[in-house]
Amino acid sequence: MRKSFALVLILTLTCIFSACSNSADTSTRANLYAEEFAEAREMANDMQLEILADDKITETEMKELATIYTACLREHDISYNMDKYYAVDIASGSGKDAYECQKNSPENVQQLYKMVTTNPTKVEDDELRLQCLIRRKIVPDDLTLEEYKYYREKNSVSQHFEMTDHGTAIITDDYGNRAEVPYEEIQNGDDSYIDIPAYDFGVPKEPVYFPNGVSLNDPRVGSCTIDPSPKAD
After folding, report:
1. Which of 58, 92, 118 is the last residue of a domain?
2. Which residues have C-beta within 8 Å of that of residue 133, sequence separation ≥ 6?
3. Mean pLDDT score of the chain, rounded to an integer?
4. How many domains, the chain?
5. DSSP letters for 56-86
6. β-bridge mates for residue 64, sequence order
């Protein structure tokens, strides 16, 4: 009897300490993203508020929100793509029909879901990408965060938009390329927004390389930008 009692006591204490540990981990993660959860609740509908109430978003909950949104898109014959984090990219030029589905858009919840899933310790994005590149042996192990930021900045090209008074937008980039494209103003009741289609100048940038000779345009580098999570390794 004494041995049985001792075994039960050990198992009980083990469960207690294990529960305490899991609770602490959950609390820490929730605290890290407390501000983001609060901001998401400000823009949430009733269903989304219910999901966000416990400062957690499960994959099942995220999938349910995405299913409701995409059902509306299909109802309006709007083409879309959805990635593994349930981000929905609709076809450009969908206009008013796409606007009709915005009340069901889970975009703010989805962005938070992806942040918590891919970056549970909430390090800055560049550090997360660098960790990915080092972990996948794409860049040298001793590449510093400051060096990585330098190469990224050197490789970036910004686009700038200027609206005209005759229904077009002038797009320029850091290389001096210029294009004028039409845009569509979508009106829905008292709300309106501008739909400017994506524009590709088709001019290749000067290649930028990491110290080991890997180009920043290498698809492996891009994969760490798209999804730097260890789950994607």
Report:
1. 118
2. 139, 143, 148, 221, 224
3. 82
4. 3
5. ---HHHHHHHHHHHHHHHHHTT--EEE-TT-
6. none
